[in-house]
Specification:
Elements lengths: L5 E2 L4 E2 L8 E2 L18 H9 L6 H14 L2 H25 L3 E2 L7 E8 L5 E10 L14 E12 L6 E12 L2 E8 L4 E2 L3 E11 L1 E2 L5 E13 L5 E18 L4 E10 L1
Parallel strand pairs: 2-7
Antiparallel strand pairs: 1-15, 3-14, 4-5, 5-6, 6-7, 7-8, 8-9, 8-10, 9-12, 11-13, 13-14, 14-15
Length: about 260
């Protein structure tokens, strides 16, 4: 959770409250029979994964196919659940450490990013921004801090077993005399690289924060479909991003707010 209080002249983009549960669908048509598998434990699978160079696209693609074809389907499922838990925990740890900093050219806009690498080489990246929108919703053209803003969160998981992809959540809100008002959400920027496809939707779950200590929330829900050999699905992952913009103090022409997000599986 972003714990730093920042003036409400910020735009927030994020990937948040994941109500995510992973289910692995082992395709018997493309994977070796369980009795023929050469990789029969999660430990053996993680060892194979750690030997793959993520920066070599050709090696990565070939290694992925070989691992999928030679791993016991139950081991794939166990590993997938373990990976889900580790990704969720590590992403939320990154969220706790992120601190938005101002853009020197435009102090009203703030940004933050962070990456971490798991033991098996999986790379996690999170980008967050809070920026002022054009004056479409402003009552005047003055330089008041009241106005329309957007909070954006982007979350990426890059690992050997499953293709790269981003999930994104934008929460649009207005800062005014009555406090904070959520005006919309979007999953724009969400994308997956073949053979990963992502279905996404978003909604406002808490629209108004009219008193200090109250907050508004946006939610993005994502279904990640990973496709293996011959187009057969091998893994489905469900994630939820939840964004929070909290009103700390409301002033005559500005507000002090805290932005944060959480990932769920």
């Amino acid at each position: 959770m972003l714990k730093k209080s920042i003036l409400a002249s910020l735009l927030v983009v994020l990937m948040v409250s994941w109500t995510a549960s992973a289910s692995v669908q082992a395709a018997t048509a493309s994977l070796q029979n369980e009795n023929d598998a050469t990789i029969t434990t999660v430990g053996e699978l993680e060892k194979e994964i750690s030997n793959v160079d993520l920066n070599d696209a050709a090696e990565l693609s070939e290694a992925r196919e070989n691992i999928l074809e030679n791993t016991d389907p139950e081991v794939l499922e166990e590993y997938g659940e373990k990976l889900q838990n580790e990704v969720t925990e590590a992403t939320n740890e990154l969220a706790d450490k992120l601190e938005l900093t101002s853009n020197a050219e435009n102090p009203e806009n703030q940004y933050a990013s962070a990456t971490t690498t798991l033991d098996d080489g999986t790379v996690l990246e999170v980008n967050v921004s809070d920026t002022a929108l054009p004056n479409l919703l402003r009552a005047t053209t003055s330089t008041e801090k009241f106005g329309a803003r957007s909070y954006k969160v982007e979350s990426r998981v890059y690992h050997v077993m499953y293709p790269d992809g981003w999930i994104c959540l934008l929460t649009f809100y207005n800062v005014g005399k009555s406090g904070l008002t959520a005006t919309g959400t979007s999953v724009g920027g969400t994308r997956g690289l073949f053979p990963l496809s992502i279905n996404a939707s978003s909604k406002i779950t808490d629209k108004r924060a009219e008193k200090n200590g109250y907050d508004i929330n946006g939610q993005g829900d994502y279904t990640l479909n990973y496709v293996g050999t011959h187009g057969i699905g091998i893994y489905v992952m469900y994630r939820t991003l939840v964004s929070t913009v909290k009103l700390n103090n409301l002033y005559a022409s500005s507000a002090k707010v805290t932005k944060s997000f959480q990932l769920y599986k």
